[in-house]
């Protein structure tokens, strides 16, 4: 919501400068997002009138002008503007004037003395470009400072309003708050019913009485639609971000900004029969003012006549009944539409309007007729004409239920002490009807405050008027007790620290993602869909974290970061029994060189075993890996990760087709694991440290190429052969001397006894049992 500070001060003018006023509004919950001066600083520029304009004797494109600036004698000024002519009034910079970027001095132009400069809008810093002098209206007083005449000392304020404060989508609403916050007198615009001088009237029928509880309208005949919009109105519209269109449209927009009530003017010549407020019928179409032709849904409220829809109620009018320069009679509409009947309809049609923005949030239903009268008066004043009687259809308006505020509850929430008289004074400043019932207040919110519904809303109002910055920040006081930390549970922060120590950086991405990520990367055909996505590419909830990691990788690669390590801990969602299930996972991505560039180690790309080592650190070396296929991963370089007897995630290299689709120079390595199992840790238990030396024996066997090492290690460890304390692979060999389809695996076997030194016979027996197990269960042969 952008508005002119000077316009606001015509209704409430506190003794505060612009900066203090902005701070006051922000601290009251009406955040001033931006403040900018209407015009840059310049001085000694006045209204001047050209009284003569003769050709420069030595330059074809220059004129020698005599300019009346209110001084004793006209000034001689050389001017090259094409629109410089006798009689017009323009800004005149006097000698000594300081303009944006340069100063004005007495000078000679082609041998002729020039005592100032006639200015364009660009030279005053009011426009980026201009084609000639800035022409002023005929009533501009000669000699007056141009900043005062054009009100250029104004400030433009932009509020970032929260959806609940629809009452502040108008100058009147903002002024109410300023007056309440500062105790300033509120000067409401004087609105009186215009004199009815015509019997022209049009019947109104409201079929959708719940969606439209109040509808008012009147016919105004004999209007001059070609009349000029007054400069003061054009300035206020432009400073609120609206351009001047035509006088009748400008007036409805002006009332919208001033009072917050959207209005619409129909060309009476384009109407046939009665005005009817109803829901659209199946198959109806409407050509809108924005040149868009739309198919109307049956839940869309329309204003219609006997021929069909004329306008989308509360959103936009139609072309067929639009006001033009040839319009002579209008039907002026002012109505209250229930927010539920308007919300979402404009977005469904891929546009938004100032009217729908307000009706969706709620407008003042008690101000509907006042706005009609105010707009009627402005039309009669500017365009002439005769006003007919007001037609009004009134049904059940929203009830304003009283809200009870407990004084003790208010002080408990705010943490301050307030005397009851101060609280009632605040409610009076806000215009809230209220009564005191013992220690409680019974407050009836006004028609323009849709956000006041529960006790907490009133507490917030008290806090706003008291001043958030006046509420002391009292540190909480509480007894601190050491909480038990279970040894069997590892905090997520420890897992994050593990990855951070390995060179990873944490990211946080959206939980809602593109449908294609779910379908392609995760093979999820039934993701949890959002009912109201914020964007078309964020329409479903994620069931995995890889999409966000890959998107962040692309972002970094586009910025010349060619070695990337990322991880994320976040929730994932899956459809379940008509609802969804939520789980927390930890996921990582590695891309680029295995190590930072250095002199002591040759460069190589990160591979499967590098990222597997990172997963090993997360699992404490307790995980098992099984080859498996995943839609996102390379079929020959992917594996399931198992921990504590359950599959907890995946590990592997991105599939080449997704590498190509994401336009990546090479494929990154990815992992994703359930967080819960990683946090489970066995409680440390005492184990006697052997005082006797260990015995190492090496065991080399031939097995089929397809037999995984993990299967051999599981077999040997599960057997729990006496004295064997550790097994490690130290060699893998294929080649000369090894039959085709076979591989040689060499294991280091460590044996130890805590009570005595092992003898050869005991070690030989353990080795024989190991070999026997490998031969019987995996067909291994001693090499």
UniProtKB/TrEMBL annotation:
GO terms for cellular component: phenylalanine-tRNA ligase complex. Residues 398-473 form the B5 domain. Residues 690-783 form the FDX-ACB domain. GO terms for biological process: phenylalanyl-tRNA aminoacylation. Its cofactor is Mg(2+). Residues 39-147 form the TRNA-binding domain. It is found in: Cytoplasm. Keywords: Aminoacyl-tRNA synthetase, ATP-binding, Cytoplasm, Ligase, Magnesium, Metal-binding, Nucleotide-binding, Protein biosynthesis, RNA-binding, tRNA-binding. Belongs to the phenylalanyl-tRNA synthetase beta subunit family. Type 1 subfamily. This is Phenylalanine--tRNA ligase beta subunit. Binds 2 magnesium ions per tetramer. Gene3D superfamilies: 3.30.56.10, Bira Bifunctional Protein, Domain 2, Ferrodoxin-fold anticodon-binding domain, Nucleic acid-binding proteins, Phenylalanyl-trna Synthetase, Chain B, domain 3. It catalyses: tRNA(Phe) + L-phenylalanine + ATP = L-phenylalanyl-tRNA(Phe) + AMP + diphosphate + H(+). SUPFAM superfamilies: Anticodon-binding domain of PheRS, Class II aaRS and biotin synthetases, Nucleic acid-binding proteins, PheT/TilS domain, Putative DNA-binding domain. The gene is pheT. GO terms for molecular function: ATP binding; magnesium ion binding; phenylalanine-tRNA ligase activity; tRNA binding. Mg(2+) binds at residues 451, 457, 460-461. It comes from the Bacteria. It is an enzyme of class 6 (ligase). Its main location: cytoplasm. InterPro entries: aa-tRNA-synth_II/BPL/LPL, B3/B4_tRNA-bd, DNA-bd_dom_put_sf, Fdx_antiC-bd, Fdx_antiC-bd_sf, NA-bd_OB-fold, Phe-tRNA-ligase_IIc_bsu, Phe-tRNA-ligase_IIc_bsu_bact. Tetramer of two alpha and two beta subunits. Its EC number is 6.1.1.20. Pfam families: B3_4, B5, FDX-ACB, tRNA_bind, tRNA_synthFbeta. Transmembrane segments: none annotated.
């Amino acid at each position: 919501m952008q508005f002119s500070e000077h316009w606001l001060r015509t209704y409430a003018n506190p003794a505060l400068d612009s900066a203090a006023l902005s701070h006051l509004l922000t601290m009251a919950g009406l955040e001033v997002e931006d403040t900018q001066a209407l015009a840059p600083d310049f001085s000694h520029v006045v209204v001047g009138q050209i009284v003569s304009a003769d050709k420069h004797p030595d330059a074809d494109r220059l004129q020698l002008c005599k300019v009346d600036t209110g001084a004793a004698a006209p000034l001689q000024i050389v001017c090259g503007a094409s629109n410089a002519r006798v009689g017009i009034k323009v800004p005149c910079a006097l000698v000594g004037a300081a303009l944006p970027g340069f100063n004005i001095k007495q000078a000679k132009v082609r041998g002729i003395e020039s005592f100032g400069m006639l200015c364009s809008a660009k030279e005053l810093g009011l426009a980026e470009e201009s084609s000639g002098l800035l022409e002023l209206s005929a009533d501009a007083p000669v000699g007056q400072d141009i900043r005062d005449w054009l009100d250029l000392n104004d400030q433009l304020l932009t509020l970032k309003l929260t959806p609940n404060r629809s009452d502040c989508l108008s100058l009147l609403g903002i002024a109410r708050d300023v007056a309440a916050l500062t105790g300033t007198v509120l000067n409401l615009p004087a609105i009186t019913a215009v004199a009815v001088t015509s019997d022209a009237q049009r019947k109104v029928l409201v079929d959708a009485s719940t969606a439209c509880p109040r509808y008012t309208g009147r016919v105004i005949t004999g209007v001059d639609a070609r009349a000029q919009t007054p400069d003061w109105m054009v300035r206020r519209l432009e400073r609120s971000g609206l351009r001047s269109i035509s006088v009748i449209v400008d007036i409805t927009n002006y009332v919208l900004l001033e009072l917050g009530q959207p209005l619409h003017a129909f060309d009476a010549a384009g109407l046939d029969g009665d005005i009817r407020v109803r829901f659209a019928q199946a198959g109806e179409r409407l050509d809108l003012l924005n040149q868009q032709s739309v198919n109307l849904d049956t839940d869309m409220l329309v204003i219609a006549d006997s021929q069909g829809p004329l306008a989308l109620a509360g959103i936009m009018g139609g072309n067929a009944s639009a006001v033009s320069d040839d319009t002579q009679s209008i039907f002026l509409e002012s109505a209250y539409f229930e927010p539920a009947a308007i919300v979402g309809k404009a977005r469904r049609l891929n546009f938004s309007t100032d009217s729908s923005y307000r009706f969706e949030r709620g407008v003042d239903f008690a101000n509907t007729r006042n706005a009609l009268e105010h707009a009627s008066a402005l039309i009669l004043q500017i365009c002439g004409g005769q006003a007919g009687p007001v037609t009004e259809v009134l049904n059940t308006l929203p009830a304003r239920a009283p809200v009870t505020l407990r004084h003790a509850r208010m002080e408990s929430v705010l943490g301050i002490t307030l005397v009851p008289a101060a609280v009632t004074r605040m409610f009076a400043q806000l215009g809230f009807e209220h009564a005191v019932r013992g220690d409680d207040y019974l407050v009836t919110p006004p028609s323009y405050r849709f956000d006041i519904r529960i006790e907490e809303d009133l507490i917030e109002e008290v806090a706003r008027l008291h001043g958030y910055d006046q509420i002391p920040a009292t540190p909480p006081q509480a007894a601190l007790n050491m909480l038990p930390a279970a040894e069997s549970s590892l905090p997520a922060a420890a897992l994050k620290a593990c990855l951070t120590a390995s060179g990873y950086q944490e990211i946080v991405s959206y939980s809602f993602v593109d449908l294609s990520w779910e379908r392609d990367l995760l093979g999820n055909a039934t993701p949890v869909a959002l009912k109201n996505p914020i964007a078309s590419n964020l329409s479903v909830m994620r069931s995995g974290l890889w999409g966000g990691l890959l998107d962040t990788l692309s972002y970094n690669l586009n910025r010349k970061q060619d070695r990337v390590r990322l991880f994320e801990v976040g929730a994932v969602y899956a459809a379940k029994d008509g609802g969804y299930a939520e789980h927390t996972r930890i996921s990582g991505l590695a891309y680029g060189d295995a190590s930072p560039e250095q002199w002591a180690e040759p460069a190589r790309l990160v591979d499967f075993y590098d990222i597997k080592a990172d997963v090993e650190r997360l699992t404490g070396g307790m995980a098992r890996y099984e080859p498996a296929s995943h839609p996102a991963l390379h079929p020959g370089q992917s594996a399931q990760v198992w921990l504590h007897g359950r599959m907890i995630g995946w590990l592997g290299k991105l599939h080449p087709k997704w590498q190509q689709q994401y336009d990546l120079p090479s494929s990154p390595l990815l992992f994703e694991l359930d967080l819960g199992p990683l946090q489970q840790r066995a409680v440390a238990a005492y184990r006697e440290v052997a005082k006797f030396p260990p015995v190492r024996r090496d065991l080399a066997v031939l097995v089929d190429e397809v037999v995984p090492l993990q299967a051999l290690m599981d077999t040997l460890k599960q057997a729990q052969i006496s004295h064997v304390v550790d097994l490690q692979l130290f060699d893998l060999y294929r080649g000369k001397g090894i039959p085709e389809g076979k591989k040689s695996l060499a294991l280091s076997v460590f044996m130890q006894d805590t009570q005595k030194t092992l003898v050869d016979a005991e070690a030989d027996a353990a080795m024989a049992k190991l070999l026997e197990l490998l031969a019987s269960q995996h067909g291994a042969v001693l090499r």
